[in-house]
Amino acid sequence: KPELHELPVPDIVSLGAYADQLQREAEARGEVLPPPIRLQIGEPNFRTPEHIRQAAIESIASEVQTYGPASGWPWLRELLAEKIARVNGYTVQPANIAISMGGTGGILSSLLATINPGDEVLIPNPCWPIYLPQLQIAGAIPVTYPLDPANEWLPVIEQLEQQVTPRTRMLMINSPGNPTGAVFPRQVMAELLAFARRHDLYLLSDECYDQIIFEGEHVSPASLLSRKEFEDGRFIGIYTFSKTYAMTGWRIGYVVAGTRLTKTIVDVLNANLTNISTPIQRAAAAALTGPQDCVVEMRESYRRRRDLVVRQLKEFGRYSYTPHGAFYTLINVSGRHGESRGGRQFALDLISASNVTVTPGQGFGTISDEYVRISLAASEEELALGVKAICQLAD
Ligand code: PLP
């Protein structure tokens, strides 16, 4: 019998299941627990806006649902070229865009299009855990570079330099970042770009949270490239509708790259996906052409929640920093004298003590071992109760 591939699986689901199990056990004993406060999920707690849902319904009712182009329909790629100019500050043509199954599908297709088995890929520590199984599927060797908690979780170029070998093929960056909420300033982006150029690397920029930004600006590295360098070069931008428009379950995102590179990525998409279904692409088009107030409203509520959490952590005397984007923050949960039970044990103890779920930091990388991640995709009330429970248990 052939061996199955073992891929690294993140812990998020099992913790939610553990909370459910405790709930069931309590019910069996005749106890009533308050419902779990779930702060571990990286998913907007908003419904997809009505006009977006309606566009999919209209497509199903009125359009013939044939196969479509693997790159996505031209009308959507036209709209996306406008969005890239408006939000990300660089100019592309529809031929530079491929519609993917969320950012997830965009990253995997890009890796499969560019990486040879044994190539080394630089990824941040901490990072979104799915990078690891994706790199494994592509046959790549992940090499981590640290994001520095003492420096608001920004990368340090000297440390990146130490990780480069002749086999390094790609630098992956993620700003606004999950799990940190860090937003790389323009200068840092320029340095990262220069680093990738110096070592002739692909630069894969995961910009899935590009429109969830609280202050400052989101700088797309591609906006710092000349058109020629973008076309000849090795830049790959990863984007999604999931976060900006609360469309996680719809599974639609897009990749932006030079024309030749996009063509290869489309070949990969063609081989594993054929196309994203037309009603979903119609919904995405409606998201882009419809009113953008929903984007602003969601962002502002994440901001209020971020402010509340930062304020509360300061009041409790906990380590805190100010996440400038995305909708997460890492909380250091070591005791007053630096003693640490590790994020995973803390997360389990927290469920038992208060029925609050958080994600252990080590799921995102070794650096965040003493941290837990909370998501701001919860109500202010839940966040206030959750952060209080975290601080009390940590003390
Ligand atoms: N990149 C990062 C950093 C993420 O946090 C996520 C989702 O949580 C994704 C990519 C992929 O999201 P999706 O596939 O829903 O677009």
TrEMBL record:
UniProt cross-references to SUPFAM superfamilies, sorted A to Z: PLP-dependent transferases (SSF53383)
Pfam family, one: Aminotran_1_2
UniProt keywords, alphabetically: Aminotransferase, Pyridoxal phosphate, Transferase
Domain Aminotransferase class I/classII large: 37-390
A GO molecular-function descriptor: transaminase activity
Domain of life: Bacteria
Cofactor(s) listed in the protein's UniProt record: pyridoxal 5'-phosphate
Family named by the database record: Belongs to the class-I pyridoxal-phosphate-dependent aminotransferase family.
UniProt-recorded name of the protein: Aminotransferase
Species of origin: Dictyobacter formicarum
